[in-house]
Structure formats: structure tokens, C-alpha cells
Specification:
By secondary structure, this protein is of the alpha/beta class. It is built from 13 helices and 11 strands. The protein binds flavin mononucleotide. One of its GO terms (biological process) is 'de novo' pyrimidine nucleobase biosynthetic process.
């Protein structure tokens, strides 16, 4: 299904209100493929978004779910005080810092009942029994991986495709088990390297993700053997995305670098470097989703105030090249650029 669209361009799921039904429908309407992001949503809200996509388009679409980690009552130590001071600064109270499973099982039941055509999972390997149930309901199942070891685990769970996330990627790293001894949560493979080593490890179709902002990048991952290219940051600035104005302004000025941090959520993620990341990142424990809940009021208050210094400004390494366009136009431009890039590459042999 996903690999038989007229365009190989996939708009990545982007949780936190960015992947709107309008974005998903616009990408699907242009021949690409769009994902709703179920992360952080209650199941009623997700059901509403699924309904809305179906009102807007008859094209297939996907839903992305966060696989929960093991229940843990972690001591967040000094980090609570750090965030409490930030909360005071922004005139709010810090969040509770609790563990939860993001209502995973309820959302699995919902996508099964709704017969969502494609279901992708990140942050862990789904149980084989869950994959079996999703597939029995007609869904194509995708798991995001960052290393050959994760790819083997996902293949053993019998998923249909893998989304291979390179280190360039914006937003959370998809690592299954966050290795607290590593700043990035695990070994960092760039996208081309990841596609190479993972294609050597498993025999599954691969989608490439991480740092893809132009059609030439789409051509590069297809040349490397991927069946499609998944772009997050590129669609973050599209007209239909629910991106906060302060983040759009940061993308337009493009003065910041990116880094991987646990500062905002307790799980490694790539975003624009700002004050909160610089001051707290080195002290942040590997505690997802506890830190996500703890920092949420601070991030919300900063966003409402239009202050980029305490927002999580997720962005891939190539964000400065992202062009604000209506999403359908972006899909068409990427398609044309990709074909031109492939022609230009081929011409080097003539
Ligand atoms: C703002 C933002 C939110 C994201 N949210 C999700 C998500 O909810 N689920 C998911 O699987 N990936 C998420 N990602 C990661 C993307 O799926 C993808 O791996 C990444 O965007 C690729 O790198 P790029 O941003 O350089 O294109 C997010 C990325 C960004 C930038």
C-alpha cells in the first residue's frame, strides 16, 4: 500500500498538534502518504482526527503510535527543582512527572476498529500478537528503527516494513531502549549508513527518514534501496501543519544549530539549541515520559508567550533548507526535483 503510491514522499507523523488532518489529506491528495500522530492524544481526539481525514479525502493514510516502555517510578532528583524554577519564571506550576503508557492499548483497539490502512509504531518494538491483530484487521504495519539490532527485533515481530531513522532526524530518536550512558540513547547511524547496515541485517522493505528536505535527498534514499522517503521537518513549515508561530519564525531566521537532548522529555530528541536545552540538557535523566509531563506546562507557557527559549523546537539537521509551501505543492516539488536529480546522476555516466 504505502510503497505503491504515485509519489514516494511520506509526511512523517509529528505529535504535539503538528500533523493535522488537513496536512495528511493534502499529502495524500498529491499522491504522497500522510500520517496522523497519535502520541499524547486521548483516543476520542484520535477518533475525531481519523473521522476528519476521512471527510477530507478518500486516499489512504496512516496512524502512528508510541510503544510504551516499562512502568517505572523514577526519582527525578534535582531535575524537579530545575523545572520548578523554570515554571516560576513562566508563571505556571511544573507538571507531575508521572509515568504513563500513552493509552497505547486503547489506541491499538481504536485503529483496529477503524480499520486504519497503515499503522506505524515508534519508541519500541510492538508485541508480535499486536502486529498479528493489526495485520488481521487489514493494516500494513511499520516499525521505526535506528540500528540493525532493532531491525532484527522488529522483523521477528513480523512487521511489514521498517522506517529507518538516521541520526539527522528531527524530533525524538526512535531507539527501543534508551541507553542512558549515551547522549543519543544508542549508536548514531547517519541515514545512508543506517539503510546500508539494516538492509544487510533484515529482508524487509525500508523507508528512509532523517534530514530529507529536497527531492535530491528523496532520490538519494531511493537510490540507496528505500521504497519511500519520510520527511518531518520539511512538512513542519508547510501551511497545513499546526506548528507554533514562534517555531516557524525560528525556522525562517535559521540562526540556531541543532542538538540531541533529553532536556524536554527524558528521551533523546533533536531540536534547535535554545536556553532551556543548553542549561538543563546535560542534567536531564533518561526518564521518558516523566520529563515530558514535568516540563509540559513550561513548554506550553513559553509557546503561548512566543518565547522560543523554553520550547521544544524539534528540527532535523537540514531544517534551514525547509521551504514553507502548501503541502501538496511541496510533494509535487519534491517529486520533480527527485526525478531531475536521478536524471542528472545518470548523466554522469554518459
Ligand atoms: C516536530 C516533530 C515531531 C515528531 N513526532 C513524531 C511522532 O509523533 N512519531 C514518530 O514516529 N516520529 C515523529 N517524529 C520523527 C519523524 O518521524 C522523522 O523520523 C523525522 O522527522 C525525520 O527527520 P527530519 O525531521 O529531518 O525529516 C517527529 C519529528 C518532528 C520534527
Amino acid at each position: 500500500m504505502i510503497e505503491r503510491r504515485t509519489s514516494p514522499v511520506i509526511a512523517a507523523p509529528m505529535a504535539g498538534g503538528i500533523s493535522t488532518p488537513e496536512l495528511v489529506a493534502a499529502v495524500g491528495g498529491a499522491g504522497g502518504f500522510g500520517f496522523l500522530a497519535a502520541g499524547y492524544l486521548a483516543e476520542e481526539a484520535l477518533a475525531g482526527q481519523i473521522r476528519r481525514v476521512r471527510e477530507l479525502t478518500g486516499e489512504p493514510f496512516g496512524v502512528n503510535l508510541f510503544v510504551p516502555g516499562p512502568r517505572a517510578d523514577l526519582d527525578l532528583g534535582d531535575y524537579r527543582e530545575r523545572v520548578a524554577a523554570e515554571a516560576e519564571r513562566y508563571g505556571v506550576r511544573a507538571g507531575s512527572g508521572h509515568w504513563d503508557d500513552d493509552l497505547y492499548q486503547a489506541k491499538v483497539e481504536l485503529v483496529i476498529a477503524e480499520r486504519v490502512p497503515v499503522v506505524s509504531l515508534t519508541f519500541g518494538c510492538p508485541e508480535k500478537s499486536t502486529v498479528d491483530r493489526l495485520r488481521a484487521a487489514g493494516a500494513q504495519v511499520i516499525c521505526t528503527v535506528t540500528t540493525p539490532a532493532e531491525a532484527r527485533r522488529a522483523a521477528a515481530a513480523r512487521v511489514d516494513l521498517l522506517c529507518v531513522q538516521g541520526a539527522e532526524a528531527g524530533g525524538h530518536r526512535a531507539v527501543f531502549d534508551d541507553d542512558a550512558d549515551s547522549a543519543a540513547g544508542g549508536e548514531l547511524f547517519g541515514l545512508l549508513g543506517a539503510l546500508r547496515v539494516i538492509s544487510g541485517a533484515v529482508d524487509l522493505p525500508l523507508i528512509g527518514a532523517g534530514g530529507i528536505v529536497s527531492g535530491a535527498d528523496v532520490a538519494a534514499v531511493l537510490s540507496a534501496g528505500a521504497v519511500a522517503a519520510q520527511l518531518g521537518t520539511a512538512f513542519l513549515v508547510s501551511d497545513e501543519a499546526g506548528t507554533a508561530p514562534a517555531q516557524r519564525a525560528e525556522f525562517a531566521s535559521a540562526t540556531r544549530g541543532t542538538a540531541i537532548t533529553r532536556a524536554f522529555s527524558g528521551r533523546p530528541a533533536r531540536g534547535l539549541v535554545n536556553r532551556f536545552m543548553a542549561e538543563h540538557g546535560p542534567h536531564a535523566p533518561a526518564a521518558y515520559p516523566q520529563l515530558h509531563h514535568l516540563t509540559k506546562p513550561v513548554r506550553g507557557a513559553a509557546s503561548s508567550a512566543g518565547d522560543p527559549e523554553a520550547m521544544s523546537l524539534w528540527a532535523g539537521q537540514t531544517y534551514a533548507q525547509a521551504t514553507p509551501l502548501p503541502a501538496a505543492e511541496l510533494v509535487r516539488a519534491l517529486d520533480e526535483q527527485a526525478k531531475n536529480a536521478l536524471d542528472a546522476a545518470r548523466a554522469r555516466w554518459s
